[in-house]
Each structure stands twice: as C-alpha cells, then as structure tokens.
Amino acid sequence: MRYFSTRGAGPVSLDEALRCGIASDGGLYLPEQLPTFRLADFDAAESIPEVANVLLSPYFEASVLEDEIEGILAETFSFPIPVTAIEAGDRRVSLLELYHGPTAAFKDVGAGFLAACLSRLEKNAALPLTVLVATSGDTGGAVAAAFDRRPGMRVVVLFPEGRVSARQEHQLCCWSDNVLSLKVKGSFDDCQAMVKAALADAKLAGDYRFSSANSINIGRLLPQSTYYADASLRHFRRTGVKPGFIIPTGNLGNAFACIMAREMGLPIGPIILATNANRTIADYLQTQRWLPRASLQTLASAMDVGDPSNMERLRKLIGDADVLRDQLGVVSVSDDEIKAAMCQDFREFGFATCPHTATATHAWRQLDPALAEKNDWILVATAHPAKFETVVEPLIGERVPLPPELADILSRPTRSVSIDPSLDSLAAALPGIG
Ligand SMILES: *Cc1c(COP(=O)(O)O)cnc(C)c1O
C-alpha cells in the first residue's frame, strides 16, 4: 500500500508515514486507496485481533512490518472492547466501551498500535526517535503509557496548563526518563502549533529525529477502524441491521476511523458526530464554510478543538460540506446539556458516563424520532468517568470507583516542566529528556 499526503506529496510507504507523522508538504497521509471487504471476508475472524488482521493487512502490504502484524495487533488489542446493551425502556441502544486500556480512554488503541509499530521499525536505529505529542487531555497520557520505557524511543508531551483534570495531569506526568512532560502556558491549539513548528524546523527535527503521535499520524487512525468493524459485524450478524454510531468528536480522529470502516464496506448505518460547544464542524456542514477558530473551554475538555486537523483528511476522502452533510450528522452539545445528560445517564442507565461520552448520550436522546426509530444505535463511550471525577461525582452525588489501571497510574510520583507557548521554550526544554 502506498500513502499520499492530502496536499499531494508522496507516495511513501506505511513505514515512512508512521515515522514522519505529518507529510513534508504539511498535509496528512492517506492510503492511496481504501481496501473494500465483503462480510464473508470476516467469517473466520472471531476475536478483535483477528478482525484487525483481516481489516488492516492490506495497509501493511510492502511494509517491513508485514510479517510482524500479528505481534503488533496482539499488543494493541491486549484489553477488551465490549459492546454492552443498555436498558433504556423500549429503545434499542448499546455502548461501545473504549475505556478499558491502560489510561482508560479510547486513545490507548491508537497509541498502542503506533508504539508497537514504531518500536519495531526503530529496533536498529542509532539515534532515538523523539515522538512529539500535543494533548488536550487524553492523547498525551495514552501516548506516554504506550511508549514508556520503550528502548530507542523518547516522548515529549505538551499540554495546556490548568485545562486538564488533575487525574489527567497525573497521567501525563508519571512516566520514566524517556518521557518529558511539558505544561504549556496556553491552549491546546498553542500546543498543537508548537508541535507543527518543531516538526517544520529542519535543525531541531534533524537533531532530535522528531515524529508526531497526534491523530495526524495515520498510525493512530488505522487501528481505530477495527472496533467499529468488530462492533458492526457482531451487531449485523445477530440482527441483520446495520447499527448507527454516535461518536464524541474533537479532532475528528475517532469518527474518521468509523467513516473509513463504512467506506471499506463494513455494515455501518448512520454516523453522527457529537461535539461540545466548539462548533467548527457543525457550522461547516450547515454553512459550507470552513472557519477554524480558537478553541472554547468546555466540560468535555479532550474535545476542546477549534481547528480539527482530520477535516483535511475527511474532505480529501469523502468530499466537501455539500457531500459530507448527506453522509454525517453533527450535534453540538453545550455544557449545560452535557451536565443534564450525565445526570440522566446515571438515573436511566444505572451507570455514570464521562462528560465526553455524555455528548453522545445527549445527541441520541434528542434524535429526530423517525431517525431514532429506524435504526439501532451504538453510543461510543470514549473515556471512563473516573478520569473526570471532579465533574461527574458532584452531579451524580456518588463516588465513581477507580478502575484498577487508573488506580495504578495515580499511585505513581509525577514530574513536569512549565514552559511558554513558543518554539524557543520548547527547544530549550528538550535536552531534559532521558
Ligand atoms: C480525544 C477524545 C475525544 C475526541 O476524539 P477525536 O478523535 O479527537 O475526535 C473524545 N473523548 C475523549 C475521552 C477523548 O480523549
């Protein structure tokens, strides 16, 4: 499989696309052509790693990793990703639980895959590779956890000071010497701009052999298609109905993977993006004008993105707003609606949801009745509520028990460095990395 930049550069191999993250012309890598599948192709695939093997093998064609795919997938999918039915009166709805990984959020899947691939690619490198990652909360923890202690690999995490939860911050700052955690005095968009500037700086990038682990890296997206494939196949085999998905959306990486899976022929019905008050995507589909802007701070902080980078991929793969609006729904959810949804989820479903997941449950409750009735819905749960206990617990009036993975992480000591939002301060902080 060959990969091209959304802006035309290429082709490159999977190996190079994984290593570079962003393309030389500033664009994002996409496979030259998506493979397509028939349901029967998955007949022998029962576990998630087996589904992943069928789905992702074509992407590894001509990669030096082609013979290692089984090991990579076993490492990536080392935790369960169940779909559970929710009791909600007479309405059929289920929850895709993406929060059973090491840092209790869906980003563990993409980060684990990228780490499994890169550490194999870098086995014999003379100089370590430095993975840069800007995070609005969850990405950085997942990437740090996935690369922690991997030989030949270093990680630099940039996150906006004061805009992530205390537990998230702990998960960003509790790793070993090969992870440098930088608190940036600015927004997530500043962090993202600093990473882009560093990658574009020839001298720095050469000295440190930079790579990026944001959802601009194709390696983050590919494995995410697997859980949509697996969940939709199971549902379709059981019921004969293609399930719709409602997906909490920020930088558009998770939803993009679902759209990819549908393009590849998986039995997926309607796809609805649930965003928080950051309306860039919702406004684009409504007005057909793409107007990226500064991000607003919301309760669903990992979705506080004003300039979702994966829109560039989506427009290349599917088309502009006039085409996209026929294929996607978008619901923008305010903080008040998120709070109300979390309360209602706890009352009606009997379990707590995180503020991100609550954008999806809200979007589901306010679906047009005809659309709601016509489909079976799978709501995507992107993080465990215990990660956001300061928001969740006062609303539901109860403690959310910590899952064991989180308890383990929160018992570790932390360290971090505070820096200004500029490339110079980033460059000055870099030598501190082990
Ligand atoms: C990152 C994140 C999202 C948004 O995912 P994107 O791929 O950026 O759209 C939603 N929920 C949680 C918990 C996240 O960490």
Brief account:
The chain is of the alpha/beta class. The chain has helices at residues 14-20, 48-56, 69-76, 107-121, 138-147, 166-172, 188-200, 202-208, 218-221, 224-239, 253-263, 280-287, 311-317, 321-327, 335-349, 355-365, 369-374, 389-396, 404-410, 423-429, and strands spanning 3-5, 29-31, 83-86, 93-97, 129-134, 153-160, 179-184, 210-212, 244-248, 271-275, 328-332, 377-381, 417-419.
Characteristic terms for this protein:
434 residues; Rossmann fold; five-stranded parallel sheet; 13 strands; 42% helix; binds pyridoxal-5'-phosphate
Strand order in the largest sheet: 3-4-12-9-10-11
Radius of gyration: 20 Å
CATH topology of one domain: Rossmann fold
Helix content: 40-55%
Biggest β-sheet description: 6 strands, mixed
Spatial shape: globular
Ligands, ions, cofactors: pyridoxal-5'-phosphate
- Ends distance: 35 Å
Number of helices: 20
Mean pLDDT: 94
| Total beta-strand segments | 13
